[in-house]
Write a structure and sequence with these properties.
- The protein is of the alpha/beta class.
- It is built from three helices and five strands; from the N terminus they run H-E-E-E-H-E-H-E.
- The protein has a five-stranded mixed beta sheet with strand order 3-2-1-4-5, with no helix packed on it.
- The chain is rod-shaped.
Length: 137
Amino acid sequence: MSDLVPPPATSGKSLMERVEDALLPLINLVFLLLMFFIVAGQLADTPLPDLPAASQAEQRQAPDADLMVLADGKWQVDGESVSRETLTTQLPAPDESAPLKIAAGEDVAMSDLEELLSILEDNGYSEVILLTEPSEQ
C-alpha cells in the first residue's frame, strides 16, 4: 500500500533550518512595519490642539451664535438683551440656507427653549442650530 501524502521535500535541510527559512519573511515584515511607524511618528511632529475642556474658564470665548439664551430665561443678540417683542427685528431674516444659531448654557430650562423655538417657528424660522456645552463634572 502506498502513502497518499508524499513525504516533505527536505532538500537536505534539517527541521530547524526549514523553520528559520519560514520565519525570515515574517521577521522582515515586522522590521518594515517598525521602520514605517518610526518614520511616520517623526513626520507627525505638529502638536495636537488643546481640547475645549482642557482650556481654562478665563480663556473661553463667546460662541459664534445669532442668539444666546441665558440661564435666567433672558435672550441676547450681539451682547444686548432683547425682549419677546423685539426679538425677530434683531435677528437676521429667516434663510433656509443659513440656519439660525442659538447658544444655550447648561442651566437653561427646557421650557425656556420650547417657548423660544415656538416664537421662532411662528416667525418663519424653520431650521435652527442649537449650540450647547457639556456640563463639567
